[in-house]
Design a protein that fits this description.
heterodimer, A: alpha+beta, 3 helices, 12% strand, elongated, disordered C terminus, B: 270 residues, 16% strand, globular
Chain lengths: 101, 270
């Protein structure tokens, strides 16, 4: 560091960044910890509900939780049996602001 | 009946063993019968920091497995009559620890000591889990640095859920935050998180602030708990922490290494 930068040194250092990053990260991690992982149970419940209304519905349900900056999205892909022989894929997607901050 | 305190952190290298030695010696200095136990099976180090590495004959694992009596494994400190060390094994691995075995040893120690200090290994595996399992209180050693704070947060969660107290629905393990390697100069420059920031994030009561200090390395070089260097800033800071751990309501003092003018200038421009 030279003499000039000594006088023009930026007083707001990296500590503030560290604090902000930690606050965002830990808010998510604490949420994940609180209570057991609900995704497997959620998946089973969804399969049960689909079966109730769509006889012969497959087990192909994909549940994903994706963390975003301001909102996290819960993505649910369900494969339903197509009409007669041709099994076409019909996907339903639910996007919820699950963990809005 | 002894109080069981775990010294833990999640992250390695933040000062758990240094803190175990300092707090153990500090409590003994204050007249409390204290035993420090090394839970880091396979990576024994508390004996070196306490300066008794050449006196280890039997260890914690030998006692758990019935190969030695507890009294044969306990090492009496030569400086402080109230202090004893239970070293761990250097050759076995952490699977040699069993919950029943640890419980048996702790129950036997409970009758003879006021404080049982458990030095946890880094991580959240078996050794760390058993070190915290029987605890009444916990000292969470944390550096003002992102990975250390994150790991401490995780450990605080485990203290609240994976301990005997949590499982039995008893009052929870009481956590205390000990900030170590704190550098007030770097905090003033905005390059290190300040005590208030870490406290706000982790939100557990503060036990003390140990400043970054060359005396900590000197103490480990010679196998002397740093608290015995009563003129050093780290020693004084640990003495304050011990008072608070004993329940005294002393205010948090900020100690700082003194530097010469020239050194101070070098630091500022570095």
């Amino acid at each position: 560091m030279n003499l000039l930068s000594f006088f023009t040194r930026n007083r707001s250092g990296s500590a503030e960044t560290a604090k902000e990053r930690l606050q965002i990260l830990l808010a998510h991690e604490r949420m994940d910890r609180s209570g057991p992982d609900f995704l497997p149970k959620l998946k089973n419940d969804i399969i049960d509900v689909i079966r109730k209304y769509v006889p012969g519905a497959g087990d192909k349900v994909d549940v994903k939780l994706e963390r975003g900056g301001d909102v996290s999205t819960l993505e649910i892909d369900i494969e339903l049996p197509g009409p007669q022989q041709a099994k076409s894929k019909h996907a339903g997607r639910a996007t919820t602001p699950a963990f809005a901050r | 009946m002894a109080k069981i305190i775990v010294i833990t952190s999640g992250k390695g290298g933040v000062g758990k063993t240094t803190t175990t030695a300092a707090i153990g010696a500090g409590l003994a200095l204050r007249g409390k019968k204290t035993v420090v136990i090394d839970f880091d099976v396979g990576l024994r180090n508390l004996d070196m920091i306490m300066g008794c590495e050449r006196r280890v004959v039997f260890d914690f694992i030998n006692v758990i497995q019935g190969d030695a009596k507890l009294n044969q494994a306990l090492i009496k400190d030569r400086r402080l009559e109230n202090l004893a060390i239970l070293p761990t094994s250097q050759t076995r691995d952490k699977d040699a620890l069993s919950r029943e075995g640890v419980e048996r040893v702790i129950n036997e120690l409970k009758n003879d000591y006021d404080y049982i200090i458990c030095d946890s290994p880094a991580g959240i595996e078996r050794g760390a889990h058993l070190a915290m399992y029987f605890a009444d209180e916990a000292v969470v050693v944390t550096n003002p640095e992102v990975s250390s704070v994150r790991d401490s947060d995780r450990v605080i969660g485990l203290l609240a859920s994976k301990t005997r107290r949590a499982e039995k629905g008893e009052p929870p393990v009481k956590p205390h935050l000990l900030l170590t390697r704190y550098d007030p100069d770097r905090v003033a420059r905005g390059d290190m998180m300040k005590m208030e920031d870490v406290l706000e994030i982790l939100s557990i009561p503060l036990l003390g602030i140990i400043p970054e200090s060359p005396t900590v390395l000197k103490a480990s070089n010679t196998g002397t708990p740093v608290i015995l260097d009563q003129n050093s800033v780290a020693g004084k800071a640990y003495a304050d922490a011990v008072s608070r751990l004993m329940g005294e309501q002393t205010e948090i003092r900020m100690f700082q290494e003194r530097r010469g003018l020239f050194q101070r200038f070098l630091r500022r421009t570095a």
